[in-house]
Amino acid sequence: MDVQRPWTSITPVVDSIARKAIEDLNSRARVIPDLTADPYRQKELLRQMVRETIDSYGMAVSDATMVWLEEQEDHMGMRPVEWKPRRVDSHQVEARMAHDFAPLFFEEQGYNRALNSMGFIVADELYSRQRKNAAHTAWKGGGSWARVAHPGACAFCTLLASRGFDYTSRSTAGGGYSGAHFHDHCRCLVICRKRGHVELPESTIRAQKIYKKAQEEVGSTDPDVLLKAMRQVGDLSK
Ligand SMILES: [Zn+2]
């Protein structure tokens, strides 16, 4: 792998695991309406599937991230430290499912809507596993980490990415309040460094330009004002 450009080797891996997870989920979900037309029963079956998918594919993302971190270990001078999901993490998933599965009961195309939400819940959890493992490793090892924005990232992720290797604190090291869950549908990843040289990707340079221009325009550091300006300056969708 290219240790100075570590995002190039982890991005396709997490993307492909997430894609497989969603395909798997969708093919299993297709048979549920044949098994039962009862929305309460459907909801239980879907919830169980989401839990199982997150458990197994989440483990795959964690394992892949650990291998990727091991490949950088000599360059970074940091030992990979695995991040373990806690009870609060599964509570968050349960809360999202309780909310997002409501269309099952109230809407004509409710089942498809619920399936769609289910895919987002799973993908969010999978990408967050990579972020949490990488941030946790850097925090434990006394290094720093940077968020790498995915193409089409929202203004908030663009803002976070624009900070580069600014992150060193425990509160953002996977699982802390501000690191736990920023928003839905995030496919951002995290890279880390300590002593070895690590470049920032083109998307971060772009994020920094958007941030700088937005700040010049509004002359404010108020996040809401800044985010609004960044959406305009960077032509960001959300
Ligand atoms: Zn994001």
Automatic annotation (TrEMBL):
UniProt xrefs under InterPro entries: VG15
Superkingdom to which the source organism belongs: Bacteria
Name under which the protein is recorded: Uncharacterized protein
Organism: Corynebacterium kefirresidentii
